[in-house]
Each structure stands twice: as C-alpha cells, then as structure tokens.
Amino acid sequence: MAAPATVDEYIAGFPPEVAERLVRVRAEIVDAVTGATGTRPEEKVRYGIAAIMLGGRYALHFAGWKKHIGLYPVPDLPEPLESEIAPYRAEKDSVVFPHLKDVPYELIGRIAREIADERVRQSAEG
C-alpha cells in the first residue's frame, strides 16, 4: 500500500475511533497556529506522519500509533504549561496521549499555540 500523500489520507488510514481523535488533534493544532500567525498553516506528511508547517518549517508533527497519539517535537515550555505536560512526556521532546485515556484537546491547543507564538517571536527577532 502506498504511503499517504496528504494529512487527510494519513488520518483516513486509521480505525474510526483513532481517526476521530486525530481529526480533533489536527483541528486544535491548526487553530492554534492560525491564531498565532493570522494565516492557516500548510499541512504535509513528513517522515510518514502528519506535520503542521509554519513559515516553511514544521511547527508540530502529530502521529497515531497502536497505543497512543504523539506530538513531536515539543520543547520545554514555560511554566505552568510545562507542569501540565509533564505527565505526558515520553522523551525530552515528545508527548504521548494514550488511547485508553481521554485526550486533553485543550492542552494540545495550548501546546501548539505556545510553540507557534515562540516561532513568531523568533522570526520577528531576525
């Protein structure tokens, strides 16, 4: 089977319950990046997973797996947000949301917004 060429194809390749979660994760990320930039971001499939782009570079990747949904890369973020993320940290720059628990969509939106805001600040600084 061919690798997905679009984020829609990527999401469609999952069982319905996982695809529904991925649609909501995608919406939170896209809304947050749009809010930070005033422009709807480009979406791509990179490294076989979904990526939301910002200024020609990725802002955040999200992926569905057998046991969880992951966001990558998620750098250390300012407090108190980092403390909220801590229970989901899998590695230094990854967070995972197990399928057996409710997905904290609002938290995902805040993570994406903070990453997008930081990228916008970096661009403004040159």
What does the model show?
The protein is of the alpha+beta class. It is built from four helices and six strands; from the N terminus they run ααββββαββα. It has a six-stranded antiparallel sheet with strand order 1-2-3-4-6-5. Helix 2 packs parallel to helix 4. It is globular, with a radius of gyration of 14 Å.
Short structural description:
The chain is 43% helix and 25% strand.
Order of helices and strands: HHEEEEHEEH
Assembly annotation:
single chain
Q: Which class do the helix and strand fractions yield? A: alpha+beta
Number of strands: 6
Global Rg: 14 Å
| Alpha-carbon distance between the two ends | 43 Å
Largest pleated sheet: 6 strands, antiparallel
Shape: globular
Strand percentage lies at 15-25%
- Helix amount, in percent? 40-55%
What's the rounded overall pLDDT mean? 93
Strands of the largest sheet, in order across it?
1-2-3-4-6-5
Helix segment tally: 4
Residue windows where pLDDT falls under 50 for at least 5 positions: none
Write the layout of secondary structure elements.
Blueprint lengths: L6 H6 L3 H22 L5 E4 L2 E6 L2 E8 L3 E5 L8 H5 L3 E3 L2 E5 L6 H21 L1
Antiparallel strand pairs: 1-2, 2-3, 3-4, 4-6, 5-6
Helix pairs in contact: 2-4
Defining traits:
six-stranded antiparallel sheet; 25% strand; globular; 4 helices; 126 residues; single chain; alpha+beta
